[in-house]
Design goal:
By secondary structure, this protein is α/β, with parallel strands linked by helices. It has ten helices and five strands. Helix 5 crosses helix 9.
Length: about 230
């Protein structure tokens, strides 16, 4: 949503002072955002949580507005039958409207310290126009090897929540789609001068968070005191 002067509507100045972590699925974005929120007293916004839950009514309303059935599409139609390329194209095409929903959430947040927003739908091409510097964003993506490690180590990373006729194919399609969507984020971030961090598992979450804190240093307040 833009104001009369063409700028993004930002009534409380939240968006202007936000920090952004975008990128690929299962790169550790949520973990890093939580670590930084605790260390620096920031307010963390988890895009994936809101997108999967709070935005569902908006998704239904949009389907009705477009003349589509209000019910969720058949899971096989979503996960089994399309190619990963078609799935990635559809996901990328849907990100702009979903980003607007996230901005509505963020506008309502008021904090004496910056907001740190993370999620795969916070795309570089969508965030860049509303920030004053590309340094306000990083893009985290897992290497293929680290993604496989996540699948082995985290049951929820490998879980497929919907009933489909071919779970193996659905999972393969999802992984391939996620890789394509992450690759597009990397290409766009580099074109826009936004830092890309490849997560390969060689550093723990605290080390990655410290690296990102160094990147965000001009915008971060002093760390919260540690109470013994």
């Amino acid at each position: 949503m833009t104001g009369y002067d063409g700028e993004v509507w930002d009534p409380f100045g939240t968006l202007r002072h936000a920090l952004w972590i975008g990128g690929g699925q299962w790169a550790g974005k949520s973990t890093v955002a939580r670590l930084l929120a605790v260390q620096y007293g920031l307010t963390a916004y988890h895009y994936d949580y809101h997108d999967a839950r709070a935005h569902n009514d908006r998704r239904i309303a949009r389907r009705i507005e477009l003349g589509e059935p209000s019910a969720e599409p058949d899971p096989d139609t979503v996960w089994v039958h399309p190619t990963p390329e078609d799935m990635a194209a559809q996901t990328l095409a849907g990100f702009p409207i979903r980003f607007e929903w996230a901005l509505d959430d963020l506008r309502a947040l008021v904090s004496g310290r910056p907001i740190i927003a993370e999620g795969w739908g916070l795309r570089p091409e969508l965030v860049a126009p509303i920030t004053d510097s590309p340094r306000r964003m990083v893009v985290m993506v897992p290497t293929r090897e680290f993604r496989q490690h996540q699948l082995r180590a985290l049951p929820r990373a490998a879980a497929f929540g919907q009933q489909v006729s071919d779970p193996t194919r659905a999972q393969q399609n999802r992984l391939a789609r996620d890789r394509l969507v992450a690759d597009e984020a990397v290409r766009t971030a580099r074109r826009l001068g936004i830092r890309v961090i490849e997560v390969d598992g060689s550093r723990d979450a605290e080390a990655v968070a410290n690296s990102i804190a160094d990147h965000f240093a001009p915008y971060l307040p002093p760390p919260e005191p540690v109470h013994s």
